[in-house]
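Deliverable D4.2, example record:
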Amino acid sequence: MGRIYAEFLGGPRAVALLFLRLVAGFAMMHHGWPKIQSPTAWMGPEAPVPGILQALAAISEFGGGLAWVLGALTPLFSLGLIGTMAFATFLVHIRMGHPFVADPTSHGPSYEPALGYLAIAFLFLIVGPGRISVDYLLFGKPKAIDSVLADDVELPA
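Output generated by the structure prediction step:
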């Protein structure tokens, strides 16, 4: 049976993943909060993006941020955030000519935050949330039946 989770990292690596999940997750929730208030119309009446895609982005950002904080369904929400942040990076910011890092005096837009969140989402998709997570509590500990069904376990005679 295939697994959607990599090995759940423990020890100091789990603490580092928890720290990143908390910081990035709460920041992502902050970005998604105004969008989730009006999920199908947060871009305004002249938006070039249909309401359903706006709603998916709102759910992805707010729900994905919450999922990162909890370490719950991390691969699923990370995949959603990869799509959302890739869209924001390549089809919005880069297409509009925004710089990678904004000039601090202009306070203009840049694609640095979206690309940064894209990188974080990719990391969580590949590495997982670590052992300090809801995912580990639900999916990380081997169940007794899994041990019995494993090919390398000898059953008592």
